[in-house]
């Protein structure tokens, strides 16, 4: 008798354990000592599962907290779970049958499998409270930049009155930017038509400026299973966001255009040139060289702002792009890497021509443009051929003689100044040095042509900046060493020259 009681107790304990395991989807084998064929263990040992889904499981699987989500959003979240696998559950087609945010209830039909076995169930869940119910606007959240968004109207040069009309039609959405904390809640709300609330803006003109009022309303949605969803707005709060926001200015226009053109990789042009050509032309003129910017990208804004027509806001004639302070690191070239660093801005030509003296401070963008021609030893040899032509000497005298280190091109003044570089012809030991076939390479403007931004001309007609050309020869040697310093970093060293040679013809 005692043995039977003990065995019955064991069986009951295992039944409780197995029931818990079954609900968790865990397979179990019959315990040792259980009678063969005991029906309480057959289903579990064969892998069968209870096909069910409880309300609690539904809320846990989809993260439905009754105080943090509306009944309508909860129902839609379940419906959106169709085809998803969550834990041991695989959902087929879920459907929101009805919901009522005010009543805090929803009904859904869910289908799928639990642990491999099908279920098909309709669940009604209640007890939801609207998370924004009885809340009021408290304090506006701090933000940088304008509370008004001018993108749409800058594109059209829209007049102030038309902007206000457009913005109010859209309830300020896309035209303003702000958010508020709430009284009675740790939440914040931002302008927009949201699922559970709407925060709109009403704009009005005040002495040429714009007053912005915020209107806050909670949404209550209802769906009874047929027809369309109904939405009831419950206005809760109204506050003034700003009493006097300015309308867009020329600075806003220039900044907007800058943001647009900087997205275009083709706005800065390489034109199959060396970057140093643009650099040299910029620093010598202290202006933006022609051809650097693809100003066709600005044409639509030039057309819109050239004059102020009816229904427009500003006249900004001759919009252009310009390098900021070309002689003060506004532009920097590296011919070894084939790149150009540029800081540029957008403004009218009049503002550009008087920058620094008119109080105008532009928005700027600094970028690195690659894809320019590159220089290396091979390219340098193809660009410049140095030869020695006999004048009065002979090879024995040449070979025995020494050519002291001499600069044919050197920096003698400030970058871009009229005396920035100087160039000299050279005759040594009875031989004349020629560059690209010209013995008078200064007169022929082959090297450091001061009338053309101190640029040097290659055999292929390409212009490039050479900062120094230095020649030397040791006694007892024949080749003349020609060391050329180009703009940029050569083999990790700024100013490291490329070394070419010249040999006497006879």
Give an overview of the whole structure:
The chain is of the alpha+beta class and 506 residues long. 23% of the residues lie in helices and 33% in strands. It is built from 13 helices and 27 strands. The longest helix has 23 residues, at 2-24.
Short note summarizing the structure:
This protein is 23% helix and 33% strand.
Outline type:
elongated
Helix content: 10-25%
What percentage of amino acids are in beta strands? 25-35%
Q: What class, by secondary structure content?
A: alpha+beta
Distance between the amino and carboxyl termini: 128 Å
Main sheet characteristics: 9 strands, antiparallel
What are its keywords?
506 residues, alpha+beta, nine-stranded antiparallel beta sheet
Helix-strand blueprint:
Elements (H helix, E strand, L loop, with lengths): L1 H23 L14 H7 L9 H8 L8 H9 L5 E2 L2 E3 L3 E6 L4 E10 L2 E9 L10 E5 L10 H4 L5 H10 L9 E5 L4 E3 L1 E2 L3 E10 L2 E15 L6 E16 L4 H12 L13 H11 L13 H7 L13 E5 L2 H5 E4 L4 E10 H5 L10 E7 L6 H7 L2 E5 L4 H6 L2 E9 L9 E3 L3 E2 L2 E5 L19 E3 L5 E11 L6 E7 L2 E2 L2 E2 L3 E5 L4
Antiparallel strand pairs: 1-2, 2-4, 3-4, 3-11, 4-5, 6-7, 7-8, 9-10, 10-11, 11-12, 13-15, 14-15, 15-16, 17-21, 18-19, 18-23, 20-21, 22-23, 23-24, 24-27, 25-26
